[in-house]
């Protein structure tokens, strides 16, 4: 089975990747803009510089046009430069050429190579190599008509790249932690927004967990707080629950009607058999009819319990309720040879339940005693202050492996179909569930024992309220 993914984790990864790519893209764009801006500054500065230095051209005594080099600054130039035109790393380099490209004068370093361009009185910018091949340089070329020569001023192109790298190295050093913190804040914010947005979906999931067969008639999913993307799913689930509810009601109604319809022919058949002379076939047929009548009655009980519409829970005195049921149902069992003992019936234990369901449970357990324990066995009914009712007998106990059935319907303790339908204990468990309690098998050394845990009524019991249940 494929493992389900967590949406908030996946979105956190997506946000992290997108944020990182955004920062990288922003850095690249900023680098390009910085480089382009720096190039523009360098180009404007070099154009201005070549116009200023054009006024320094002169003819030497031999008639050759040379540049009257400007004085070096008195203060030191910022490293890595060593001077304007001097030193191992000058800022500028120049050449003075004639129309044929002959170099009339040049600097010691960064002297630009190449033939001059058209005789343009405005500076012309280009890139090219140096005379000594030290690398590409940015060249500003200006034609000086009074000398008939071209002044070509150059500056190293690599300076811009170095300056850009230095700028970003310092920026990362100073702003790197801020960018990392911003990335973390973005991820946490995105995950927080996602988790907050999924709260409505979690509420719907909690609603779905509370839907059971008992409240299927009125409990549905409410999608008002869920995202719009899951609204169709919520509507589909509610529609499916409506269909399940309709099917359950139809099945219950069919069982009730079938049980009612079968009662009459079975009663007529039993009357006919009672009029016949006693014999093995007649006695076996009577047993079969009694088994069918019990099965029909239990199917009717199951259908009513599954419908859970005929019972209203209220505060009951557990001891008084059990005593009333035993007074009505126990005499027939006692007269047949079984013993019944009751303890704790006088305890003021008030529970939330339904007297009809309690009577149904005790009658099914007594019927099991009559069918599955020998005559002379003892039945003990014990009520405790914690709202539990223990029903135990001294019979042979449950068969091995029966406890693993979980009180499933139509699971019998033996193969004799006449002894029971396998519905009695399932009816007891379902009835306890309808009252919000539990029905469980109690470990015992001999016989069988069942524990019923009711919900206690925590409200204070007044004399008037208690008297109402005694009447």
Description:
By secondary structure, the protein is an alpha+beta fold. It folds into three domains: 7-163; 209-310, Orthogonal Bundle (Helix Hairpins), CATH 1.10.287; 312-470, Heat Shock Protein 90, CATH 3.30.565.10. The chain has helices spanning 7-54, 158-197, 199-210, 231-274, 280-307, 318-335, 355-372, 424-434, 463-470, and strands spanning 57-59, 65-67, 92-97, 103-106, 124-128, 137-144, 149-156, 314-317, 339-343, 350-353, 378-383, 388-393, 438-441, 448-453, 455-456. The strands form four sheets. Strands 4-3-7-6-5 form a five-stranded antiparallel beta sheet. A five-stranded mixed beta sheet has the order 9-11-12-14-13. The protein has a three-stranded antiparallel beta sheet with strand order 8-10-15. Helix 6 packs parallel to helix 7. The protein is rod-shaped. The two termini are 60 Å apart.
